[in-house]
Specification:
The longest helix is centred in the first third of the chain and has 24 residues. A five-stranded antiparallel β-sheet has the order 9-8-10-15-16. The protein contains five helices and 16 strands. The chain has a single domain, classed as Creatine Amidinohydrolase (Alpha-Beta Complex), CATH 3.90.230. It binds magnesium ion. The site of magnesium ion has 5 residues, from loops.
Length: 280
């Protein structure tokens, strides 16, 4: 059981948090299977098929397939978003063949017993130029900086400020502003919005909130366009973009990264942060 608070932020009970973890774990394992398969010559449709098979084997369903954001946009036709190079997010898998030098961002979600998981990884295909490799690394680093800033009695804005600070320290990257992180639970996208920029303000972080922290940064502009397929978001200047995402929660003991195989334990130890999984 869960309840909704007045600002519309869902609070997940400890029991149901274990279901959120199951969803996150399926997402983590599926993403690993896809990432491991990425090499020059594979198509994005083949990557998507691996994700679909992972869901089938896990007995989970897709929250991406058929997703309708409104405004007359057609339902999303796949279980993964595969966004290549200048594509920021929401790329539709298809017959595109990945080539050495490409940067592929795989965004993937799963539903287990009504609860959602959502995460993304950027993958270097073959030999990738240093600026593109550094872009992905900076994006991943900023995601972890955002995760590290999440603490009880802190605010959502602490996460936003930490992501932005990390990106700025890494280089002159563009932070995409039109798309943001979000709360997650019974719905994949729910309150609160979690921008990847801004000041320390916003809703207080409480036990039971599940948050998707997902920086999208570029080698150029902060501006984006949508392609004629009504889904694919590309950088306005067609510069390369990276995207990393994890679903997290904050327990009384510490952070729990629901969409990492180890719950985030290793990375949190490296960052000197408390690891706070709930026990089965
Ligand atoms: Mg997301």
């Amino acid at each position: 059981m869960s309840r909704r608070r007045s600002p519309g932020i869902e609070i997940v009970s400890p029991e149901d948090m274990l279901t959120m973890r199951r969803a996150g774990l399926i997402v983590a394992r599926s993403l690993k299977a896809m990432v491991d398969a990425v090499k020059p010559g594979i198509t994005t449709a083949e990557v998507d098929a691996i994700g679909a098979e992972c869901l089938r084997q896990a007995g989970a369903t897709s929250n991406f397939l058929g997703h309708e954001p409104g405004y007359g946009v057609p339902p999303f036709p796949a279980v993964t978003c595969c966004s290549v190079n200048e594509e920021v997010v929401h790329g539709i898998p298809g017959e595109r063949v990945l080539e050495s030098g490409d940067l592929l961002s795989i965004d993937f979600g799963a539903v287990v017993d009504g609860y959602n998981g959502d995460a993304a990884r950027s993958v270097l295909v073959g030999e990738v130029s240093a600026p593109v490799a550094n872009l992905s690394q900076a994006c991943e680093k900023s995601m972890w900086a955002g995760i590290a800033a999440a603490r009880l009695r802190g605010s959502i804005g602490d996460i936003s400020a930490a992501v932005e600070r990390s990106v700025r320290r890494s280089g002159p990257y563009g932070i995409v502003r039109d798309f943001v992180g979000h709360g997650i639970g019974h719905e994949m996208h729910q309150a609160p919005d979690i921008p990847n920029y801004g000041h320390r303000a916003g809703a207080a972080i409480e036990v039971g909130m599940c948050l998707c922290i997902e920086p999208m940064i570029t080698l150029g502009t902060t501006r984006v366009d949508v392609l004629d397929d009504e889904w694919t978001i590309v950088t306005h200047d067609r510069s390369v973009s990276a995207h990393w995402e994890n679903t997290i929660t904050v327990t009384k003991k510490g952070l729990w990264v629901l969409s990492e195989e180890d719950g985030g334990e290793a990375k949190l130890a490296e960052l000197g942060l408390p690891f706070g999984p709930l026990a089965d």
